[in-house]
Amino acid sequence: MAEATFDKRVTIFSGHYGSGKSEISVNTAFILRKKCMDVLLADMDIVNPFFRSIDAKRALESAGIRTIAPMYANTNVDVPAIGPEISAALHNESLRVILDVGGDEEGARVLGRFRKEIPEDDYDMFFVFNRSRPMTTNLSDTLVYIREIEVSSRLKFTGIINNTHFMDETTADDILYGMQLALEISHETGIPFFASSVMEELVPKLEPGIDHPLIILKRNIIMPFRKP
User: Fold this and answer.
1) Are 125 and 155 in contact (CB under 8 A)?
2) Domains and CATH numbers, the chain
3) Overall average pLDDT of the 194-204 stretch
4) Cα maximum dimension of the chain
5) Burial of 54 (0-12, 13-18, 19+ CB in 10 A)
6) Residue 22, class by beta-carbon neighbours within 10 Å (0-12 exposed, 13-18 middle, 19+ buried)?
7) How far apart are CA 213 and CA 24, in angstroms?
8) 131-157: string of b/e by CB count within 10 Å (b at 16+)?
9) Cα 178–179–183 angle (5° rounding)?
10) C-alpha 5 chain-centroid distance
């Protein structure tokens, strides 16, 4: 069992609300930063104001990771006022860029504005899949959801990440349960299965049942109703 590696200069995460894509985005930024890379994380989720990667802004910037977020992030007003900064980052070939994208058609359309600036041969766009979410509990609904994001963004997914979880109640069996459907989705779409993500405390319980790469997560984002 190996840890997943992120090899492309631009890494994009998209998935349904509650999929956990923001936590994966933040963790990926820290993973890349450990390799002494110049890293920037852009929170492009203009739809969901409650559970955002920018919530970890202080820790990210303390580690030397640059962050971009809409001007009014974490307020009741949110506008896509981040275009020029993202464009500059995408054109900077020495910079590793992570885009945390809203997981609906509107969020995907925001990503689509930058389609021509995203290097065709140097990006990954991962579908973060959580089988516990209402829109991704079965194969047919998930396929529709994937197609909608690809059409709206005008970009293709290059990998699937299984991030099935039930918050603090997640078990090793839950992750394996999500992996089964994630592999079906991969087979049906031709999108490669990339990895399962798992909180670090669950890793020892997964070892007998996992034979593909893992993204090992530390909790960086605290939901508003949860005490740190």
Assistant:
1) yes
2) 10-217 (3.40.50.300)
3) 90
4) 47
5) buried
6) buried
7) 14
8) bbbebbeeeeebeebbeebbebbebeb
9) 125
10) 14
Query: Helix (H, G, I), strand (E, B), or coil: what is residue 146?
Result: helix
Q: Express each pLDDT in 81-121 by its tens digit.
A: 567 899 999 999 999 999 999 777 778 888 999 999 999 99
Beta bridge partners of 50: none
The amino acid present at 9, given as its one-letter code, is R
Instruction: Give the pLDDT confidence score for residue 52 in this predicted structure.
Output: 60
Burial of 111 (0-12, 13-18, 19+ CB in 10 A): buried
CA distance 213 to 81: 36
CB 14 within 8 A of CB 104: no
The answer to whether 14 touches 127, Cβ cutoff 8 Å, is yes
Write down the pLDDT at residue 3: 86
Give the type of residue at 93: E
DSSP string, 71-131: TTTTSS----TTHHHHHHHHH-TT-EEEEEE-SSHHHHHHHHTTGGGS-TTSEEEEEEE-T
Q: Has this prediction a pTM greater than 0.85?
A: yes
- Calculate ∠ Cα 111-113-118, nearest 5°: 70
